Structure formats: C-alpha cells, structure tokens
C-alpha cells in the first residue's frame, strides 16, 4: 500500500524582549539557576501580572510579516496543569482570541517548486521553567529562570507532506523571525523549539490518520530525523495490523532514539478560562500603522531584490536572503566589489570556514570589508583565485588587517609580466620536450585536455603566482606554432 504523510507544526518562538512577559525579571540566557525568577513569575500570593508592551509589538510584527489577520481584541487565558517546572500550576496563554489569526508562509523546495503553508494562528504565552536531571543522583532539579519568558506559539495547518517541506518551512520561519528582530533564532539555547504532529493515511484518502506529537525539537536536523523515524514507525504499525495511538513522543537527537512520553491531552483537559488578572488587549489602528511603517525588508522581497539588483541566481539569492546576518554580510562585501564573486565567496570559503569552526557569520574573523578588499584584488589581477584562498586563510588566522597587507607581507602578488611568463614557459617546454612532441602529434580535438599538463607545470614553476589566463594564452600560442 502507498502511504501519504500529513504534518502540522507548532513552533515556540522566544521573543527577544529584555524582560519577561508579565514581570520585570530579566530574560538573559545563561544566568545561575533560579536567579531570574521574581514573585510574579512564581505566582506568589498578592502579585499581579502586567503585560510587556514590547512582547505585544513583536507578536504584531510577526503577524504583519506573514500577511496575517491581527485580532484587534485578544484575551489571555489560564491553561491549568501540574508539572514541577510550572510554579503557578497554570500557564498564561491565549486560546479563543489569539493575537495573530490566519496567515501564510511561502516555501521553496529543493526542486525549485514553491508551496504556500497556511498558518492557523499564533498566540502569546509564557514559558515554563526547566527540569534538570543530570548530577542529581536519582532526583531532578528545577530552574525557574525561564518561567515567564515571552513566547509566540505558531500553529500551522496540516499542509506539510514530508520532512523536506517541514524543514524548508522551519528554515523560512527562522529567517522571518530573525529578520524581524523578534527572536535571536539560537535554537541551541531554546529560542526556537518545534513540536511535530505526524500522521499517515493511504494515498488518496481524505480523512486524516491518528496523529502523534513529537515535542521540543531544537534543530532542523533533529526535526527531519524525527519525522522520518515516526513516519516509518507508523507505517510499520499499520501494515502489521496495529493501530496508532494518539500520544506525545520524545526524540533524542544524540542517540537517534524515539519513545512514547504520555497519552495526548485534549484542550478540555486543561480547563482553560479567561485570566482574571489580565484585561483584554486592544490593538489600536495607530499602533498597527506605526509598526507597519517600521517593518524591515522581508526575506522574499530581499531575495527578489538580490536577483534584480545583483544578478544572482534564484538559488544563491534564496540562501543569502534567508538569514539576516548573512544577507547583511553579503551586501557589505558586494558594495564596492563584484556581487557575483561576493556571493560565491560567502557561500563558499566563508561558509565552509564558519562550519568548520562552528561559529556564526557574526563572529567571522574575516569581515565583510576584508572580503570586499580581497575581491577587488582578484578583479584587478593582483592575485589569482587560488592565491586568493591563501590570502583568505591568512586573514582568517589574523595574519593581516586586510588583503593588501597579506599580499605584500607574503609576496603573493600575481606575475603579469608577459616576458617573465614567456621565459618561465620556455623553460617548462624545454624540460618536457617529449610531452611537447606528443601534444603536437595529437589530433586537434585532444589537445585541449593535454594542455592542462603544461599549465600545471608552469603554475608550479611560478609557485602559483603567474596569471592563469596569460599562462594558457602564451602556452597555446607556443605549442601550436
């Protein structure tokens, strides 16, 4: 039997406010446990929450960024459940009247096709604390620093049909929230966490199958692996005559293991009711228009501009526009140099070096200005492409403040003197007389491949400094004469 996968996502995005959603406690990451939880976060008797206005603004910006409805009146509710890291015994969230209504996010797939993924809604809520299980000898510790941190939970329609689409959507969403500046996008610190709802059904069937929810996936890689594993598991169960149980599951990215956590709750299990301590939030026209006027250039618009302004390919423009720091780095490097070369270097040497050293482009030792200067020296034939890689490596290792200093210090300036190159080539041809005879005796159509040997010898003799174009031109003239 052929099976179709149906996927819906719930994404928790931590908003980049300095303080929590209902208190003045800090949201800074990395503090000592339980040093950033105040009386409001703990729900102590007599305290009253006050809504963080900046969290409201950030949620509205997200809605504007995905062309969604903004609900002018939205209400906070209490979601009641017991868990050790939920100090109040309830989570303040939104259910019936969320701040962001229906919207959409367009994604581009590996084959170049596009698809629009519907957003059901996005609501504001507070985060819970964190249970710590290591080093407690059979016990658990509780860190409440994260309790009360502002989140938007983004809920998609079940429009995704495979892991590739889910990852493409997650990456696009990451691009949107970081471009808007409402989230730092640092998934290793929990700034974005994905809950994946997966079901399978026979191909052609309209009715959805029973879904499971795999929670708290904090990387694109883990999300893809968890989806593939869960799809395979569900198909195996169904083909063996079993039934899928609606449940919450966990996936361990380090071990690749998945397991059942608990049966899946329904909304009525949480006994939602309007929070008596918080008034409805009313969004005025003036606030909406002010935020709309301050919106940055969104990834899709940036991609279109990169194609029209810089002549980039669709694929290159898509990658470069998908991450705000990378887009800014590229534009700074392209300014005053060559945009296509800047694109090639950012997507090539820069990306490889960042990945190898496990750092972000914000921490790159080679700045955009350094890269622009390097590209200028490639364009004016001061250095060749191969020498440029040596210069880049030296800049990366801190061996110079710019390309000119490295080129001068290491004597890497390209040889463009025709007489010097001719003399070098004459020595190469004399030392390889037999290969010259073979070349001249070969059919014309085979000579193109054979000339590569002589180019290699000439470049070796010049220690890579000879202009490759001039070497090819002079060699061909001398060999064919």
Describe what this molecule looks like in 3D.
The chain is α+β, with helices and mostly antiparallel strands and 481 residues long. It has 16 helices and 15 strands. The protein has an eight-stranded mixed beta sheet with strand order 5-6-9-1-10-11-12-13. Strands 4-3-14 form a three-stranded antiparallel beta sheet, with no helix packed on it. It has a two-stranded antiparallel sheet with strand order 2-15. Strand 5 (103-108) and strand 6 form a beta hairpin. The longest helix has 20 residues, at 220-239. It is elongated and about 95 Å long. The model has no long low-confidence stretch (mean pLDDT 92). Belongs to the GatB/GatE family. GatB subfamily. It holds the Pfam family GatB_N. It catalyses: L-aspartyl-tRNA(Asn) + L-glutamine + ATP + H2O = L-asparaginyl-tRNA(Asn) + L-glutamate + ADP + phosphate + 2 H(+); L-glutamyl-tRNA(Gln) + L-glutamine + ATP + H2O = L-glutaminyl-tRNA(Gln) + L-glutamate + ADP + phosphate + H(+). Keywords: ATP-binding, Ligase, Nucleotide-binding, Protein biosynthesis. Its EC number is 6.3.5.-.
List the keywords.
481 residues, alpha+beta, eight-stranded mixed β-sheet, three-stranded antiparallel β-sheet, elongated
């Amino acid at each position: 039997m052929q099976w179709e996968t149906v996927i819906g996502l719930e994404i928790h995005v931590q908003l980049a406010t300095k303080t929590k959603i209902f208190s003045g406690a800090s949201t800074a990451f990395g503090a000592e446990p339980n040093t950033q939880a105040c009386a409001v976060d703990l729900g102590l008797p007599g305290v009253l929450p006050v809504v963080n206005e900046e969290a409201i603004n950030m949620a509205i910006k997200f809605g504007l960024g995905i062309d969604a409805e903004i609900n002018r009146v939205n209400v906070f509710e209490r979601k009641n459940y017991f868990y050790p890291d939920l100090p109040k015994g309830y989570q303040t969230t939104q259910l019936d009247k969320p701040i962001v209504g229906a919207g959409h996010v367009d994604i581009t797939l590996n084959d170049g096709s596009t698809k629009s993924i519907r957003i059901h809604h996005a609501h504001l809520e507070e985060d819970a604390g964190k249970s710590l299980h290591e080093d407690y000898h059979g016990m658990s510790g509780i860190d409440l620093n994260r309790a009360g941190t502002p989140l938007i939970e983004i809920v998609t329609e079940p429009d995704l049909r495979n892991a590739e689409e889910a990852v493409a959507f997650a990456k696009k969403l990451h691009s949107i929230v970081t471009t808007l500046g409402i989230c730092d996008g640092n998934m290793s610190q929990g700034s974005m966490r994905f809950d994946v709802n997966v079901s399978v059904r026979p191909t052609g069937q309209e009715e959805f199958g029973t879904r499971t929810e795999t929670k708290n996936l904090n990387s694109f890689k883990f999300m893809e692996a968890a989806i593939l594993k869960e799809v395979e598991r569900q198909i195996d169960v169904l083909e063996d005559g079993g039934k899928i149980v609606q449940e919450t599951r966990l996936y361990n990215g380090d071990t690749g293991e998945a397991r059942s956590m608990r049966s899946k709750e329904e909304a009525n299990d949480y006994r939602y009711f309007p929070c008596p301590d918080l008034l409805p939030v009313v969004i005025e026209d003036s606030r909406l228009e002010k935020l709309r006027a301050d919106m940055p250039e969104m990834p899709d618009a940036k991609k279109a501009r990169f194609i029209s302004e810089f002549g980039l390919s669709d694929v290159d423009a898509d990658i470069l526009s998908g991450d705000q720091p990378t887009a800014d780095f590229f534009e700074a490097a392209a300014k005053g140099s060559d945009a296509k070369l800047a694109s090639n270097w950012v997507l090539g040497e820069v990306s490889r070096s960042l990945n190898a050293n496990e750092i972000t482009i914000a921490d790159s030792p080679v700045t955009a200005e350094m890269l622009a200067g390097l590209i200028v020296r490639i364009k004016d034939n001061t250095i060749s492409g191969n020498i440029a890689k040596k210069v880049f490596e030296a800049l990366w290792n801190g061996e110079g403040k710019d390309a000119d200093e490295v080129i001068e210090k290491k004597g890497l300036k390209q040889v463009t003197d025709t007489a010097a190159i001719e003399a070098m080539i004459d020595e190469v041809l004399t030392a390889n007389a037999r290969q010259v005879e073979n070349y001249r005796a070969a059919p014309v159509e085979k000579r193109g491949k054979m000339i590569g040997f002589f180019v290699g010898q000439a470049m070796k003799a010049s220690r890579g400094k000879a202009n490759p174009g001039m070497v090819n031109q002079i060699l061909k003239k001398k060999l064919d004469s």
